[in-house]
Amino acid sequence: MSKQDNLYLVGLMGAGKTTVGRLLARHYGRTFYDSDHEIEARTGVKIPVIFEIEGEAGFRKREEAMIAELTHLSGVVLATGGGAVLSQTNRENLKNNGVVIYLRGMPEQLYERTRHDRNRPLLQTENPLARLQELFRQRDPLYREVADVVVDTGRQSVSGMTRALYGKLDSLTRGLAQPDTAD
Ligand SMILES: Nc1ncnc2c1ncn2[C@@H]1O[C@H](COP(=O)(O)OP(=O)(O)OP(=O)(O)O)[C@@H](O)[C@H]1O
Ligand SMILES: O=C(O)C1=C[C@@H](O)[C@@H](O)[C@H](O)C1
Ligand SMILES: [Mg+2]
């Protein structure tokens, strides 16, 4: 398996990893996985319940095992959980087995996108914007460390961002990608 066989998305909560990941998978004819969804499917409960029962540390263990499993597959687009890059093992698995795309959003914008959603336990605080700012400071260097491509989500729409990505990725994955040019 070579690095070009897979595409991995990293970035903070609300960056668009799941949304953009699905579109990339369809475009390149690859199988889409979302590590958060796989963990939920495997445990039969939502992520906030895992945090409640096992704490963040318990969730991170499950996440590490899941990322290891998913980065051993070939021909996939993988949307990772926002905190996956905290683990060095995950960072190595991601860097070694796929082209890593960092969807880079600013905390203020991510706050707007996530404020009505209750499924992100780390944002269930009095001041979720301050939490996103803190997470951005901690994690931006880690996302950059693993990334082959950095895309600022800025004010771009999902479709604008995905189109810009096709151009960058086609040169990185030349010969291996099988774009479905219909979208
Ligand atoms: N570029 C964008 N412009 C506007 N809205 C966006 C953009 N990207 C994502 N969104 C919206 O933001 C919300 C969060 O996106 P999404 O769930 O894909 O993020 P995520 O990175 O997978 O987050 P998490 O790490 O929490 O799983 C969704 O409602 C999505 O439609
Ligand atoms: O940023 C994070 O640490 C998280 C992001 C989500 O994708 C989930 O993996 C979980 O809510 C933790
Ligand atoms: Mg997601």
| CATH level 1 name | Alpha Beta
The helix fraction, in percent, is: 40-55%
- Radius of gyration, in Å, reads 16 Å
Count of individual domains: 1
Tell me the total number of β-strands.
Answer: 5
- Classification by helices and strands: alpha/beta
Strand order across the largest sheet: 2-3-1-4-5
Enumerate how many helices there are, as a single number: 7
Regions with little confidence, pLDDT below 50 for 5+ residues: none
- What is the global morphology? globular
Largest sheet: 5 strands, parallel
SSE arrangement, N to C: EHEHHEHEHHEH
CATH architecture classification name:
3-Layer(aba) Sandwich
What's the rounded overall pLDDT mean?
A: 92
CATH homologous superfamily title: P-loop containing nucleotide triphosphate hydrolases
% residues in beta strands: 5-15%
Overall description:
Strands 2-3-1-4-5 form a five-stranded parallel β-sheet, sandwiched between helices. The chain has a single domain (3-170), classed as Rossmann fold. It is globular and about 45 Å long. It has 183 residues and is α/β, with parallel strands linked by helices. The protein has helices spanning 17-28, 35-43, 47-70, 88-97, 107-114, 128-146, 158-172, and strands at 7-10, 31-34, 76-79, 99-104, 149-152. The longest helix has 24 residues, at 47-70. 53% of the residues lie in helices and 12% in strands. The two termini are 27 Å apart. The chain is built from seven helices and five strands, in the order E-H-E-H-H-E-H-E-H-H-E-H. Magnesium ion binds next to helix 1.
